[in-house]
Write a structure and sequence with these properties.
By secondary structure, the chain is of the alpha+beta class. The protein contains 5 helices and 4 strands; from the N terminus they run αααβαββαβ.
Length: 147
């Protein structure tokens, strides 16, 4: 008798290492579509059978955001081109921008909120946020809300 799936949010440090390795393989394959599963599992030190057994059952927390509307919040320095840099990275990730709101800068810093639709994204939202946070002038970068 098959049970309905039940989902948990669990800290990866308490799980067996195999689950982290499956996630590493999935990230490698997502970032390098030209790589074969054999290459990725060998790189991580995981068997192909273990990868195939768990790949459809292990997901990063952020992947549950696919196909959702997410509102991102940024604190940015007030200089020309900072918002364009953020928008370019969002476009590179193939997220659909729904709204942009930038407040008037106070003391050289501005709050920006951008709502995106994640259906067509070609990267994990976590990776997008990491790339944006590395932009010069981005002081804070986080998920404010998700639908």
């Amino acid at each position: 008798m098959r049970r309905d799936p039940e989902y948990f949010l669990v800290d990866s440090t308490v799980l067996p290492e195999i689950f982290s390795k499956v996630m590493k393989v999935k990230k490698i394959l997502a970032k390098h579509p030209e790589k074969k599963v054999n290459d990725a599992v060998r790189e991580v030190g995981l068997s192909r059978s273990a990868y195939y057994k768990y790949r459809d059952h292990v997901f990063p927390f952020y992947e549950t955001s696919r196909g959702k509307v997410i509102t991102l919040f940024f604190v940015v320095e007030d200089f020309s081109g900072i918002l364009a840099g953020i928008i370019n990275l969002i476009a590179k990730a193939r997220a659909n921008i729904l709204t942009i709101n930038q407040n008037i800068p106070i003391n050289g810093l501005a709050d920006v909120t951008i709502s995106i639709e994640t259906e067509g994204m070609c990267m994990f939202i976590e990776d997008l946020l990491n790339e944006i946070s590395r932009l010069e002038g981005v002081r804070k970068c986080e998920i404010l809300a998700r639908e």
